[in-house]
Amino acid sequence: MPSLSTHVLDTALGRPAAGVRVELTHGGEPVASAETDADGRARLADDLAAGTYRLAFAPPSPFFTRVELEIVLTDGHYHVPLLISPYGCASYRGS
Q: Of 25, 36, 63, 65, which sits 20 to 30 A from 85 (CA to CA)?
């Protein structure tokens, strides 16, 4: 069964982004939500069903007020970081 965690980094300040709200939905229904800790990390869920999910962030950026990713989870642990600055954002599948 899949599990999911995330990490938000403020690349403009060069440090983790604490207190960022993160929401996970599946089929339009809320599955989990969390705020990143002092290290910018959040563990969202364990024992998820395989499928397509939406991972939404409310980052500390004056331009990007919501960043949403659609991800497909099959089996194992997934770590999906978000790199954010006032002028850009990026994500990738971490380990």
A: 25
